[in-house]
Amino acid sequence: MEWFLKVVKEHYADFNGRARRKEFWMFYLVALGVIIAVEILAIIMSAISSILGVIFFIILGLLALALIVPMFSAGIRRMHDVGKSGWYLLIPIYSLILAITEGEKGDNQYGPDPKA
């Protein structure tokens, strides 16, 4: 949870620098968990009452909108950690492979090593 809060509070729209694998994956897992939990809650509420369902689906949409910027930010900084441009995030399978790959050791053109 602390990695999620770190990305949201300190790096919300920070597209510069590098992000470790741990920071990237912990943020994505918590964000995905929160979105799925709210979606399940919205489905349950819509079964109880259509008005409650609409309210919770609106909350879900607002949550998704709020998290899209830090998701791109963390992804781009993760691509920087492996020495690639942030545009590589748009290549589906290759960006997943890069996100799993260990980052470059030492400084690179995008900044200092976050593990150091």
Number of helices: 4
Largest sheet: none
Mean pLDDT rating? 91
Portion in strands: under 5%
Which structural class do the helices and strands define?
A: mainly alpha
Oligomer: single chain
Shape field: elongated
- Low-pLDDT windows of residues: none
Element string (H = helix, E = strand): HHHH
Q: Tell me the number of structural domains.
A: 1
**How much helix, percentage-wise, in residues?**
55-70%
Q: Give the termini separation.
A: 22 Å
Number of strands: 0
Description:
With 116 residues, the chain is mainly alpha-helical. The chain has one domain. The chain contains 4 helices and no strands. The chain has helices at residues 2-10, 21-48, 50-81, 92-100. The chain is elongated, with a radius of gyration of 17 Å. The two termini are 22 Å apart. The mean pLDDT is 91.
